[in-house]
Amino acid sequence: RSGYAPFVPRQSGWTCPKLDGRQMCPILGQITWSAFLLGVESMLPRRQPRMTVALCKIIRQQAGEMMEKLIRQMLVELGEDPEREGLLKTPERVARAWGDITAGYDQKPGEMVRSALFEAEGKEMIVINDIDFFSVCEHHMLPFFGKAHVAYIPGKKIVGLSNIARVVEAYARRMQVQERMTAQIATCLMDNLEPLGVAVVLK
């Protein structure tokens, strides 16, 4: 999400001036990975892209370690012993899994559409059925899944069919509710493909 102020490095973490200066991290703060990395990039010289990549890798590693600590603490609160054999590597596994489950925050669906546009040769409706998706309900952090059906009437351009499936996946791999996800997919196609009309159904 754009619009956040750059993050300022402190000895004990990262702070954002527009967020009352409270300590922030990509796990505990009310921000997304995209916003966090956008803030970091804004602090770095544009002529040093390698530095940006290196710093982002460090931040991701530290965030993963923070996630592991939180999961370990959750196991303790549940009454489990995180030191027993079956749970020793559970925090690491869960942290990796959540990184994959929420990978959509780092993806740019609009660019997925714009990268695969072709001249339209007709005005017939194009329909893509039964796109599998897997997401996480933001209310209880539990999985929900189903199939997406997307249709559009071309304007001047058409888009590669596989890219529509990628757009669905990018929005699914976030904390979601079905209604918002449906609207996000439709809006993305309207804004970047500019068709005469779009329909999106999630079941």
Account of the protein in words:
The chain is an alpha+beta fold and 203 residues long. It contains six helices and nine strands. The chain has helices spanning 33-43, 49-77, 90-101, 109-114, 161-172, 178-193, and strands at residues 8-10, 13-15, 23-24, 117-119, 126-137, 143-153, 157-159, 175-176, 197-202. The strands form three sheets. A four-stranded mixed β-sheet has the order 8-5-6-9. A hairpin with a 5-residue loop joins β5 (126-137) and β6 (143-153). The chain is elongated. The model is unreliable at 1-51 (pLDDT under 50).
Secondary structure blueprint with pairings:
Elements: E1 8-10, E2 13-15, E3 23-24, H1 33-43, H2 49-77, H3 90-101, H4 109-114, E4 117-119, E5 126-137, E6 143-153, E7 157-159, H5 161-172, E8 175-176, H6 178-193, E9 197-202
Parallel strand pairs: 5-8
Antiparallel strand pairs: 1-2, 2-3, 4-7, 5-6, 6-9
Kindly report the spatial arrangement of strands forming the biggest sheet: 8-5-6-9
Low-confidence stretches: 1-51
- Largest sheet, strands/sense/barrel: 4 strands, mixed
Average of pLDDT: 79
- The helix-and-strand class reads alpha+beta
* N- and C-termini, Cα separation: 27 Å
What's the gyration radius in Å?
20 Å
Helix-strand topology string: EEEHHHHEEEEHEHE
Number of helices: 6
Beta-strand content bin: 15-25%
Query: How many strands appear in the DSSP assignment?
Result: 9
Shape: elongated
Helix content: 40-55%
List keywords for this structure.
203 residues; alpha+beta; four-stranded mixed sheet; three-stranded antiparallel sheet
Describe what is shown at a glance.
The chain has 203 residues and is of the alpha+beta class.
